[in-house]
Amino acid sequence: MSTPNILVLAETHDNTPADITLELLGGARQLAAATGGQVVAIVLGQAGSAAAEKMVGADRVVVIEDATLDAYSPGPYLAVLEHILTLESPRAVLIGSTTVGLDVGPALGAKLDAPVVGNCLRIEKQDDMLSVTSSLCGGKILADVEVRRGPAILMVLPGSFHATDQPATPEVDRRASPVPLEPGRITFDQMILPEAGDVDITAQDILVGVGRGIQQEDNMEVAEELAEALGGALCASRPIVDQGWLPTTRQVGKSGMTVKPKLYLALGISGAPEHLEGMKGTGLVIAVNTDPNAPIFDVAQYGTELDLLDLAPELTEAIKTRRVAT
Amino acid sequence: MKIAVVLRQVPDLIEPLEIVGSGNALDLDGASFLVNESDDHALEQAILLKESAGATVDVVALDFGDVDNTLYSAAAKGVDRLIKITLEDDKPPAPKAAAAMLAQAIGPIEADLVLIGCQAHDELQGALGPVLALKLGLPYLGVVRGVTAGDGGLQACKEFPGAVMARMNVQLPAVLGILAAESPPRYVPVSRIRAAMKSTQFDEQPGAAEPTEPAVVVRRMYHPEPAERAEMLVGSEAEVAGRIADILIERGIVK
To answer: Strand, coil or helix: what is A42?
Structure first.
């Protein structure tokens, strides 16, 4: 039997809760109001301890102060979380759909025989169950599901909830690891930062984003020429970086960069949630995609279904012509 | 080193996706399928390790969608063995059952390394890799971009936001969830795939899993209805290009 409490797996960066963590706490606050429980944030490692008091939306923050947990390694993380979840027995655990969350969410579900829902956009209590909406197939399909028993492991897409605007200082409970922590067979070695020297796309006012619709590497040239004519820089969705056509420093999205340009011209980008996450603060989005149902048109102010390979050279010329005229 | 690679079929997102009449599942009968993109990268990573460090590569796949062509393509890329898990019905199994079937086939291989894509776009209940790892009793690391062999183990780069990587030491055996291989999946000429179709034998194994009560019940699947859609610009390429250029100048973005 689970308690009505809602747990949040917190992620921190530079002594501050990550944006996704504050969003999860906001979502947990709403859910806890419906279940009649508390919101409990779990912070793993000494390094995140300073962020505990900033967990806005949490009633209680449990910090496991053990240096083994400072850098992510799957064995110790799972051992501690499994113990805490068993002890706390929450109705739901909210985990960000992040690079760490994607590992630990399903693993916890399997270890605890708990229901797991990925890519959650909405979570509500309905009678004695949780009603959850999940995004599938790159955002082209939504699924409304019922989760009848706890603890429900809910992996939430960034941007699904707002951080709470009712700040209150949580009670912080700092403790040693409740279980002996062995390093495990997969251990952290070192962080590798991106190589300096490439264009910083996070500092650009104008970005031309390239997606799978560019089809082949030779076609990158038309996008480069357009970016140059606009006075901007080229960036891409993950498939283009995976192909090696642009470096990882040009990737926009969950595992890439977060950009907020004045203009984002999306060429052949479908608009998967992972990509949209990295460009949600953009001023003006113009999308070019032959698929009229592409989710990118949901966030763009202007769009066209013309083929990008036909349109881009025309647009380059149109920009150049107008520049000369002015 | 013995490597096992899981290859899954997913609906092709280029084609329209339909919902079944009851409204609670994708209509898979009308869908076209292709190999899950990150699984394809897992296969490429396995072949790169085979080339650089020496390994055998066994591919394991559930008999669903266009799996035969996927397996022939893998054969043409140089894998050593192809295991096809046959299913009792025409539907893909639930995640737990899929993990159990895959573990049943992978266990006897005694693989040092199991590679699987770190996610698939049709996964409702989270990634399969961690669940498979638990069934195999192995540790799991996902969102991996590049794996290299070293003394006594592997080094895997786990991707974090901001193009930051965490280099992780991996003692084998282990399961890795691959986001991207060190280099993109190689192109295989159709002639080699055709040759593989003639010469390749699948090792067919029946998949069986005990039925379990679903922990998550799908009530409705549907296409999202956006609150707002983009204003669509229509006309010839020159007309639309001119309109976009005018918008950018009107807004002061291009001067």
So the answer is: strand
Transcribe A134-162 into DSSP letters: EEEGGGTEEEEEEE-SSSEEEEEPTTSSP
Q: Domains in chain B, start-ordered, CATH in brackets? A: 2-206 (3.40.50.620)
Report how far residue A279's alpha carbon sits from residue A34's, in angstroms, rounded to the nearest whole number. Answer: 32
User: Which of B163, B177, B218 has its CB closest to that of A145?
Assistant: B218
Residues of A in contact with B41 (CB under 8 A): 242
User: What whole-number distance in Å separates Cα of residue A171 and Cα of residue A55?
Assistant: 10
Q: For residue A276, what is the enclosing H or E element?
A: helix A273-276
Per-residue pLDDT averaged across B216-229, rounded?
A: 87
A205 CB-near residues (< 8 Å, 6+ apart): A232, A261, A262, A263, B253
Q: What average pLDDT does range B145-153 have in this prediction?
A: 88
Task: Answer whether A103 sits within 8 Å of B140, measured CB to CB.
Answer: yes
Give the burial class of B89: count Cβ atoms within 10 A of its Cβ; 0-12 exposed, 13-18 middle, 19 or more buried: exposed
Angle subtended at Cα A134 by Cα A130 and Cα A137, rounded to the nearest 5 degrees: 160
- What is the SS3 assignment for B32? coil
Q: Do A106 and B166 touch (CB under 8 A)?
A: no
User: Which three-class secondary structure state does DSSP give residue B156?
Assistant: strand
Instruction: Give the ranges where A36-165 is alpha helix by DSSP (H).
Output: 74-88, 101-112
Name the minimum distance, in Å, from the CA of A231 to any CA of chain B. 8
- Position B7 scores a pLDDT of 98
Contact B126 A102 (CB under 8 A): yes
Residues 6 or more apart from B251 whose CB is under 8 A from it? A284
Q: Do A116 and B128 touch (CB under 8 A)?
A: no
What is the interface size between A and B, counted as CB pairs within 8 Å? 283
- Provide block-wise average pLDDT over 10 residues at a time, chain A (326 residues): 94 92 97 96 92 94 94 95 96 96 96 96 95 94 94 95 86 95 92 82 94 94 96 94 90 88 96 88 94 90 96 96 78
CATH superfamily of A201-325: TPP-binding domain (3.40.50.1220)
The residues in B 91-110 lying below 8 A from A, measured between CB atoms, are: 96, 99
Q: Which ipTM value was assigned to this complex?
A: 0.92
| CA A138/CA A291 separation, integer angstroms | 13
Give the tokens for residue A46. 């000494």
Decide if domain A6-175 falls under CATH 3.30.559.30: no
- CB-CB neighbours of B70 under 10 Å: 24
CA distance linking residue A51 with residue B78, whole number of Å: 50
Q: Measured between CA atoms, how close is A63 to chain B, in angstroms?
A: 22
Q: Which residues contact B44 (CB under 8 A, 6 or more apart)?
A: B77, B181, B183, B184, B185, B186
A233: phi then psi, degrees, rounded to nearest 5:
-130, 160
Asked whether the beta carbons of residue B248 and residue A191 sit closer than 8 angstroms, the reply is no
Minimal Cβ distance to A249: which of B128, B163, B223:
B163
Are A13 and A152 in contact, with CB atoms under 8 Å apart? no
Q: For residue A75, list chain B residues with Cβ-Cβ distance below 8 A.
A: 139
